[in-house]
Every structure is written in structure tokens, then in C-alpha cells.
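Subject: design request, 64 residues
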């Protein structure tokens, strides 16, 4: 699903960028330009970021 219409960024691309190491909105904005134009995508992007970081933390806890 498209999250940022201004730059054509999908939820899958956001998730992929997080999997590759982005952990903040600033990093996502730098990499993908999300939130750098109209800003309407910021809320959804933050939800995706938080969900992915929680998943990563849960996986890390299970491995450790």
C-alpha cells in the first residue's frame, strides 16, 4: 500500500528500509523522503516504524 504519495513510497519499502537498519523517522526521511513534503504520511510511517521495532525487539529477546 502506498504510504507517501508525494514520493511513491509503499509500506513494504518502509519495512525493508527498517530491516536494513533505519530506526528513526529522521533516517526514514533521509533514505525515502517520507514526511519531507506534505507530511500526511508521517502518522502511518511512525506506526509502521513502531510495529517493526517491536517485532525486532521481540525476536531479539527470543534469540538471546
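Subject: RE: design request

Done. Sequence follows.
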Amino acid at each position: 500500500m502506498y504510504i507517501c504519495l508525494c514520493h511513491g513510497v509503499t509500506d513494504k519499502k518502509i519495512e525493508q528500509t527498517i530491516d536494513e537498519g533505519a530506526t528513526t523517522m529522521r533516517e526514514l526521511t533521509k533514505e525515502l523522503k517520507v514526511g519531507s513534503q506534505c507530511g500526511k504520511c508521517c502518522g502511518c510511517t511512525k506506526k509502521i516504524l513502531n510495529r517493526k521495532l517491536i517485532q525486532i525487539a521481540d525476536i531479539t529477546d527470543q534469540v538471546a
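Residues 2 and 48 are 12 Å apart (CA to CA).
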